[in-house]
Amino acid sequence: MLGWIWWVLALVLAGVEMLTGTFYLLALAVAAVSGGVVGWLGGSFAWQLCAVSVTGVVGCLAAYYWHHKAGGKPPQQMAFDVGQRVQVLVWNDDGSARVSYRGSRWDAIAATPETPRRDSMVIVEVRGSVLVLGENPLSTPR
What are 105's strand-pairing partners? Predict the structure, then answer.
């Protein structure tokens, strides 16, 4: 009967999914395909709706649990700055610093309160836009 509408809906949902990357729309696209299959096999519109509903709920629940299994956090990005040397311009009394790195000035902090303050340091971590500095074994004491 109107089973072809499910196939068109599945294509539209899959296309929009490619723009968002949430996997919920992919689950709904699969649900629409299941409605199309039931329609293609000659099932009534009520059976098509049943197939779409059940498959949609199961698919969305699977996407939800898969997303939260990963902690709901974006994947850890590689910190390409870790291990790079920076030139410290000034150390502040609170332990923070301004450094010159990659042609601009950055805020930085010492890795620990015991970390010696030197003119040349190494990036050991990046926290947002703040560089965490550790001791550079090749630098000379200040």
Answer: 100
Domain ranges of the chain: 3-69, 85-134
H helix and E strand count, the chain:
3, 5
* Helix/strand/coil for 91: strand
What is the dotted CATH code of the domain comprising 85-134? 2.40.50.140
Token representation of residue 8: 């068109």
Residues in contact with 107: Cβ distance below 8 Å, sequence separation at least 6, in sequence order: 96, 97, 98, 129, 130, 131
Residue-by-residue pLDDT tens, the chain, 142 positions? 577 888 999 999 999 988 887 789 999 999 999 999 999 898 899 999 999 999 999 999 998 888 777 665 555 556 677 888 888 899 888 878 999 888 889 899 988 888 888 888 898 888 888 889 987 555 444 4
Determine contact, residues 113/132, Cβ cutoff 8 Å: no
**pTM (2 decimals)?**
0.50
